Amino acid sequence: MAETRPLPPWHTAMSADTAWTADGIPESLTGALSPRSSFGSATEKRGDSVPGMAREQLAGLLNASAEPAASSVYRKLPKADLSVVVDGVGPLRFPVSDEQASQLQELGRRARFGRGEQTLTDPEVRDTWEIPKELVRVEWTEAFAAVLDGMRAELGLPPHCELTPELHSMLLYETGQFFVAHQDSEKDDAMVATLVVTLPSAHTGGEFVVEHQGQAKKYRGLKTAVSLVAFYADCRHQVLPVKKGNRVTLTYNLLLTGDSQAVAAEHPLVSDLAACLHTHFTTPVVLPYSNRRGAPPARLAYLLDHEYTARGLSWSRLKGSDAARAALLRAAAERAGCEITLALAEIQETWDAYDPDEDEDAWYGDDEDEGPDDHEDSGSADDRQYVLQDLIETCTTLAHWIGPETGRLEDISLDLSDAEVASTTPTADMTPYSSEYEGYMGNYGNTLDRWYRRAALVIWPRGQGFASRAEASPGWALDELTVMARAGESAQAREAARSLESFWHAAGHYADQTELLRKALEAARELDDAQIAAMLLRPFALERLVPGHGPAFGGLAAHYGGTWIDDLLRGWSEGWRPGSYGLAQAPLEWLENLPRLCAALSVEEDPSVTAARRIVDLSWTMFAGQVGPALDGPLTSRQKAWLTSLGAPCSGIIAAAAQLGSTRVLEDAHKLARTDGERAHVLAMATLRAAGARETGFDELAVNCAERIRALLAQPQRAPGDWSIELPTGCACELCEVLGTFLRHPERRALDWPLAKDKRRHVHARIDDAELPVRHETRRQGRPYTLVLAKTETLFERERLARERHESDLAWLTDNWKVFN
């Protein structure tokens, strides 16, 4: 006997006799899926919902719901419906004559164009004349208003809206002039489209091409009538070169009056869309690389078909079918107990692709003598030349949205999984704003990366509103928690904070970490819960703590105690553990300012001072653990530059330790500086120079450096005929034994050594890695070739320069640190 599933309480808002499939989908939806519905092709790898139909059905319903809307519209009017007068030329006579075109050119100036924040003039991009707008007077008959209303309808804007034209420019294209493909920027907050009016003239060429979603339409001007083309501002468009004659146009900004959102609450599809949302938010996601199920999706982002800028993103200015679909989804979200907002998404798709003109043999490097620049197999280009095969990965990130409470555009950063994204039009059908082709790379095939910007309707269950907003904007969440706690709503604030735990680990990767940590420190104190406070602060790194955080951090140390603060600091320094690769620049710069941070903490009570000492201990443990093992061995120019760059961070730790009386750190630092070899000496001198003169805590270091230099200067200098060189340890093979014997010989300067290629390569590497003063070349005669080694005069020059440097360093130490014999 089949089991009867109870319907959820919210389902009563739907038709009482709605039939449901076994997957929880209304049967009325099963035929609505459009073949153009789009979802991430990499879902098996990244995880998808089961059965995965809810998003598909929603996109299919929305595809079927909206009347097809054009992205560009063409009309023509008799020339009698337009009158144009230009000061200095007079009334234009149609068709525009060559004589009047010449007069317009004399009034014109090179037209400019925008690129990012710049306004440029470049005839390779835009070659046309712009007649000053203040010289132009235009009058239309009533027929113009009727044409605009027809264009409004064909562009998919509802009847209660109106397009208001605002003259932007008058342009003259002479023979050979053009404008390459581009997109218009919004010149007004109400601008949604552009209108190009081509005046009657006897010209050929100069076609106006408008492209949207990979489809291009070509429009030609007329000799005996006025042609009008309206298109949405996100459409790419261009003017092809004029072949003969002159093309004269008026361009208008089309401003939208009225709200493009239609009332859709009673639309018959709203119930079905609400059912899709319910299924989407209650169906578990299959986890990547497994058959296990995770939690249901936290949100749904439905990608719209048109592009919008941050300035143009508004519910009231949605374009074409986007407006109708948004109205339906807003109504469906309300019925399903969800919140919805508008957002801007950055999308990157990585495709398996190839260039059909590429020489396949070149992928495998058949000619070993070819240089690295003989093939150009990567870079930015028109990606239409490449053949797309399989979609490897899609990354979707929300970058801005309209705040659900403020109604203002907010900067956010939220990565979406494939299971959270749906669209009616596949992103691959859109035109990317950037693309980059990467040729064959050995372990990887040819790939094409494409980047897109799309608007999205983002929906989440109302009960998860705080967590959904917090994941996109952690700064907002921390502010809200602090406000709630200070308003006496501590229990609600703690409950809201607990809802963040599943994703809060990513908070340490958001922008402006200094400000985010400040907010987290405040919220952690106000919530008065040690466990929640630790959760909120755990994602951050120790180097994000700055002097301005001192009072708040000190307050936490006093409130939650030494054990709590010690655990927090130890977690913050996890990325610094000895043995991890390299020393990142951010911690090094932070160590330079460690004395200022410790000074800020020292003005507070004892718990803050204890915490400051712990910070210094952790900093030294990290620094010494990673630098100490690198002090053994000969000094090369690369190592010298690296150790010199560590002087300021090392100085910061020692100064902070002296400031707090951390004797263990000071003793360990002096011990490290006494390590045998040139490397330790370079680090010690760089530390002293970064500290300045007579800084507390550095006296012993200065004395040790002076003693080391005096001992070096007391050693006998190299005799003029002594050509002996010591080969650094590191390899005991037979080749290195022969090389070492040659190098140590005080009189022998050259060696001819027949060696196979691999053996020559090993000797080359040993000489180059140690930067030995030995010239090494291959004489390509006979078999095997002969490796020719020759000691150079650089041996003596280096020793002379080293002695001069030691004398200069000793003089500086004597003047600044009073280290006399």
For the terminal residues, how far apart are their CA atoms? 102 Å
C-alpha Rg, in Å?
36 Å
Number of helices: 24
Q: Please tell me the overall pLDDT.
A: 86
Topology:
Layout: H1 43-46, E1 48-49, H2 53-65, E2 72-78, E3 82-86, E4 90-91, H3 98-107, E5 109-110, E6 113-115, E7 118-120, E8 126-127, E9 129-131, E10 136-140, H4 143-154, E11 162-173, E12 178-182, E13 191-198, E14 204-205, E15 208-212, E16 215-219, E17 225-232, E18 236-239, E19 242-244, E20 247-257, H5 270-282, E21 285-286, E22 300-303, H6 321-335, E23 338-354, E24 378-379, E25 387-402, E26 409-416, E27 421-423, E28 434-438, E29 447-461, H7 465-472, H8 474-486, H9 490-498, H10 513-527, H11 530-537, H12 550-560, H13 562-572, H14 585-592, H15 594-602, H16 606-627, H17 637-645, H18 647-660, H19 663-673, H20 678-691, H21 699-714, H22 734-744, E30 750-754, H23 757-769, E31 774-779, E32 786-791, H24 794-817
Parallel strand pairs: 22-27
Antiparallel strand pairs: 1-21, 2-17, 3-4, 3-10, 5-9, 6-7, 8-12, 9-11, 11-20, 12-18, 13-17, 13-20, 14-19, 15-16, 15-18, 22-29, 23-25, 23-29, 24-28, 25-26, 28-29, 30-32, 31-32
Helix pairs in contact: 2-5, 5-6, 7-8, 8-9, 8-10, 10-11, 10-12, 12-13, 12-15, 12-16, 13-16, 14-18, 15-16, 15-18, 16-18, 16-19, 17-20, 18-19, 18-20, 20-21, 21-24
